[in-house]
Amino acid sequence: MYADLQGKVVIITGAATGIGKAIAKRFAEEKCKVVINYFSEEENPEELLKEIEQGGGTASIIQGDVTKEADVEAFVKFAHDTYGSLDIYVNNAGIENEVPTERLSLEDWNKVLNTNLTGTFLGCREAAEYMLKNDIKGSIINISSVHEIIPWPHFVHYAASKGGVKLLMESLALEFAPDGIRVNNIAPGAIDTPINAEKFSDPEKKKGVEKLIPLGYIGEPGQIASCAAFLASEQAGYVTGTTLIADGGMTKYPGFQAGKG
């Protein structure tokens, strides 16, 4: 736990499920005031809100689309109007779909790039603008992916979006460092989330993924949430412009493990 996080105001996009949900719960446990963004009613954000409040935490929910400029502006205004500040912004919302590149439509390309890259840009911009205007030495955290490093055939739009998020983060970290605003990425590897539920329910497919992970197991959303809490805290006060890779070693060429290759 990080005592300096108590009372901080945090926005988390795409927070009703998966990694975003775990991050929201962790920041609530840290006694932050949590703004839960969700996209669709199907995500049932009220369930998470109730869970946080029953645990003694403070949270509010706001619906919105991270690809829409007005919606992202509204997230920041909502945080200010509800809690009087914004200290931490977590760009978590993201999508993916598998399509062989020769059949990848411009519509699918734009949908993934707009959500994963443009949505992250809008969140970073609005958070930074608020922090600059209010002299807040805040933290912006982007949930990227190991595919900001690892190529991924049939997911070129996803990999391109995450590669973009890497250089977006690094550029913004340089730009805002003199103002005390830290910008970092977290790059999860294979995590047991609803988006992966079908794949990991198949024992053979799950085993195939585990072979790509030197530690030998699929990660949990709470492990990514722990990374987010650390990066937002003063314990990471000297950390900016960095991708914290949480992948069980997936990016370390597992085929060469045990001297192979």
TrEMBL record:
Gene3D superfamilies: NAD(P)-binding Rossmann-like Domain. This is glucose 1-dehydrogenase [NAD(P)(+)]. Keywords: Oxidoreductase. GO terms for biological process: monocarboxylic acid metabolic process. Pfam families: adh_short_C2. InterPro entries: NAD(P)-bd_dom_sf, Sc_DH/Rdtase_CS, SDR, SDR_fam. Homotetramer. GO terms for molecular function: glucose 1-dehydrogenase [NAD(P)+] activity. SUPFAM superfamilies: NAD(P)-binding Rossmann-fold domains.
